[in-house]
Specification:
homodimer, alpha/beta, 434 Repressor (Amino-terminal Domain), Rossmann fold, six-stranded parallel beta sheet, six-stranded mixed beta sheet, DNA-binding, repressor (chains A, B), Transcriptional regulator, LacI family (chains A, B)
Chain lengths: 324, 324
Amino acid sequence: MVRIKDVAREAGVAPSTVSLVMNKKGYVSEETRRKVEAAMKKLHYVPSGVARSLSLNRTNTIGVIMPSAAHPFFGELIGELETALYNAGYKMVLCCTHAKDNAEPHFVEMLKRRNMDGIIMGAHSLDEGLYDNLERPVVAFDRYLNDCIPIVHCDHCQGGKLAAETFLRHSCRHVVEIVGSSIMKTPADDYHRVAAEILTSQGVKVDRIERPWNEPSYASFMQIARQLFADYPDADGILGADLSVSACLYVAQERGLRVPEDVKLLAYDGTLITQMGTQPLTAIRQPIKELAELTVCKLLAMIKGEQDSQPWMIAPTFQPGATC
Amino acid sequence: MVRIKDVAREAGVAPSTVSLVMNKKGYVSEETRRKVEAAMKKLHYVPSGVARSLSLNRTNTIGVIMPSAAHPFFGELIGELETALYNAGYKMVLCCTHAKDNAEPHFVEMLKRRNMDGIIMGAHSLDEGLYDNLERPVVAFDRYLNDCIPIVHCDHCQGGKLAAETFLRHSCRHVVEIVGSSIMKTPADDYHRVAAEILTSQGVKVDRIERPWNEPSYASFMQIARQLFADYPDADGILGADLSVSACLYVAQERGLRVPEDVKLLAYDGTLITQMGTQPLTAIRQPIKELAELTVCKLLAMIKGEQDSQPWMIAPTFQPGATC
DNA sequence: CTGAAAGCGCTAACAG
DNA sequence: CTGTTAGCGCTTTCAG
């Protein structure tokens, strides 16, 4: 392996000069630069990223913790985060917590070991205190971690409002919400709360049915959908995450219900799957790309010790479809 | 920041002894061990991963290059790779090449900089020679890179056979294959080739229609599907990747065709999306989890300089559905 | 503008 | 069983 020292010797200069050339720092005469560059090329020199990180106390790497990469929402989010980080010169190391025993503390440990310059946390955390006293910055994505960790999220109150308005516009009288496990409090709870408040105030009956904790299999979505139609056969509006609502579409058809004539389905998230299949889902879309960019922007600002004046929240949009 | 030296001083021992304790190496007396552990705890010592990597010339990090994380197949694959790597004590740094200018060379550069111990490459590469003369191991996932880089992939010949048998079983007379861009030669081409050979030999007419290069938007899938039905109105069997076939299901319905009565649809891959919607897609499923585990196993064996006697290929399975 | 030298924090021989 | 010492490869003052 060829080191900076070898390049220096070959070029007849000191290692520090080679460093200056590599990093385009300071003043180096044109001639010296050329000599150094020639030496680097001749020796096929490739600098060590690790040594550099040790010296700089910075790895240009961000840890991203998400429940799963296979889930359409998180898959899309991970992709956008990676792109935003890449554009800022950072690498992304990914940790998926679902189906792992206790990956999360293990991963946070890596942050402490200074393997990463910061963390974006988008998984559920049941581990109180895990994020206290960290020396390096953490930004939460749509999650409450502790009082000190800032959160980037979609304006779910606005989302709830859009949802309620949609059901009201179609004169629904009985809306059922499929909500996540109540073990977990998240900013996304707001859309269910706000939608229910508005609908109730307009005399619409609202029920909710809860999904099991940490169970992302499609079969479980189907099961909830079946239970929903069994428990609330007169429901004429359903609100839930994309996958939940997608399952409802299937079960509605199974039961001979017409969508949207008999029952309106409104998906929350608006990922790719809402566009697929024979009947695209009407949805409230979270602007995933913008959320990812904002998250990265906020985290990098924290790393640089800067202030960033953008708000921490982005509004969702209404995405037309064939189910409302 | 507290360093190993500080712990050593606190415990009244040498840094090397602290290192031995941390890594559970060599022989350390019970008493010394306790003193060291107490000192570590007292000082809230967290070792530096970067310094360790520099010393060991090993980062316990693997680079994974994929086209996209938002695509159902790659999302699932990425998740399984991450889990397999995690279980082996490795972190995954992810690079998605789609929609980035030339991320791939940039990423390979990181491998050269020894930021990673190896690479799993699952993206298309048009960059000839990029993978030559690498000092650290690379395993390709379902891609041809160069003559030296081994490939883990699904047994696509078997997949093609399964597909052909399915169409024959349903007495199809005219099958259309939706194939990827011919710019790219991949192991997956085999299933189209083999299916076509078998079908043709049985007197079935086979046509193919090509998807544009590197264009993963759902709209483009819809466009191809429309073109397919326009060009081959008498097709009674369609074979293609999940998303392609999903789009065909939509368009078939749009044109008033009954599935599977008028036309059989067979999806290749069998990701989550085949299970969704009102009509689950019949599919040839690639065993993504097993493929991911095999890929990781092979790469880690290369890193350790070991031999691994497992074959580099895994057979696909038939997944029943409602479209054949 | 360039070079010498002192780190960055950990590991691994090798003595003792 | 433990301490000394010499790296790992790069960056960064600080003289000159």
